[in-house]
Records
---
Amino acid sequence: EPVVRRLSRKVKGPQPRFFDDPGVDALYGIVLALTAELAAALERIRSLEQVLQATGALRAGQIEALRFDEGELQARIAAHEALI
């Protein structure tokens, strides 16, 4: 059975500083974290598409060809506006 090592979640030592304003450093960290999350989500979506294509549930280009009816389009617009 493999040994699993848990890493400490406590930062040792001072936080690195890249900018004079600590707020800019914090914003940079947030953007970096969001970028990493987006990259992981996109990788997972690509994997799902590959699985769906391999099982025949999805054809190549089917997502790009998808067109929404007016109700779905309005629901998506409303969701985007709510997010903003």
Note: Residues 2 and 8 are 19 Å apart (CA to CA).
---
Amino acid sequence: MIAKNGTVVAQSIGVSTSNSGGRAESLYCAAIIELVTNDYIEVFVENQTDTANITVENLNLDIIRVP
């Protein structure tokens, strides 16, 4: 999920499951967020079904200015 200034953007919440080995194949989330000077973006992940930590191997965050 993505947060703007510490508040989660509801439409950015994505859910993924893992295979029997515990590996998620992919996860995608997106949101259109209007930013102004001094706004900040955060990316959060959490394990909702276990106490095991999550390891993020690859993360792409694309920010595109829409005129």
Note: Residues 3 and 42 are 5 Å apart (CA to CA).
---
Amino acid sequence: WINPADAAARNVGDRAPIELSNTRGVFEAVAKVTDQVPPGVVWVHDGWAGLNGLTESTAALPRTALDGFGFTVGQSTFEAEVEVTKRA
């Protein structure tokens, strides 16, 4: 998911093939242009390849398991900065 302002700045349309990259590697994806994420943020279900390979993209715990905790989980916790570019 990518905010419309960020998508426009990169000439990326909804469902366009994109590439997310940083010094750790490259991840190919398909853009979902939506205002459900703020500008400057991208969200990717499951993250980098192999990261969630142990759970095969299925939840290991029910969604309600984290309800009692005052923290969030995900790559944003680690400040994973990426660049988004349109693939040809």
Note: The first strand starts at residue 17 and ends at 22.
---
Amino acid sequence: MKYLKFSQYIYVIVGVYFLYDCISTWNGDRNQAYLSLFLFVMATFMFFFRRHFHKKFEDRNNKQ
């Protein structure tokens, strides 16, 4: 289960990439920028979702 500890940070890296892509393409191709913005929001959501469940699993394992 160690991969759960590190996989949440992959979403941060992916989110930063999509935020950079959104900012860099905002004046050129607005549809691409909106897609990148959506993917940034989804990556941020997945980071917090994974972090929540990682803490939940840790608490469950510590009680046993």
Note: The longest helix spans residues 30-63.
